[in-house]
Design brief:
Layout (H helix, E strand, L loop, with lengths): L3 E4 L2 E3 L5 E7 L9 E6 L6 E6 L5 E3 L7 E6 L4 E6 L8 E7 L12 E5 L2
Length: 116
């Protein structure tokens, strides 16, 4: 089973940007739909961005226009570029396969904190 490891989080001021990276331990092979989730304090883990095996992207309304998801199947990575961050984006961000049959065990995620 593929494992995913998230990195790139940190502390950023409102209006700033961060780039998150998701590294897969195995070859995702351009077959899996991939996504980024986030879980803020007291909230459920919500899907915020996804990219299909064909490259089609989808975003939650809360991040649309600010976040960009992309994939590199040769490098087995999925990237989330986050711009114009606001405090409501503060959360732990997780990467995983969208389709349940490919879903890996949730990792530790990477913490994003937006604060001045």
């Amino acid at each position: 089973q593929v494992q995913f490891v998230e990195s790139g989080g940190g502390l950023v001021q409102p209006g700033g940007s961060l780039t998150l990276s998701c590294a897969a331990s195995g070859n995702i092979g351009s077959l899996w739909n991939m996504g980024w989730w986030r879980q803020g304090p007291g909230n459920q883990r919500d899907l915020v961005a996804s990219v299909t095996s064909g490259g089609t992207t989808n975003y939650a309304d809360s991040v649309k226009g600010r976040f960009t998801i992309s994939r590199d199947d040769i490098k087995n990575t999925v990237v989330l570029q986050m711009n114009t961050l606001n405090p409501e984006d503060t959360a732990v961000y997780y990467c995983n396969a969208v389709d349940p049959i490919y879903r890996a065990k949730w990792g530790q995620g990477t913490q994003v904190t937006v604060s001045s």
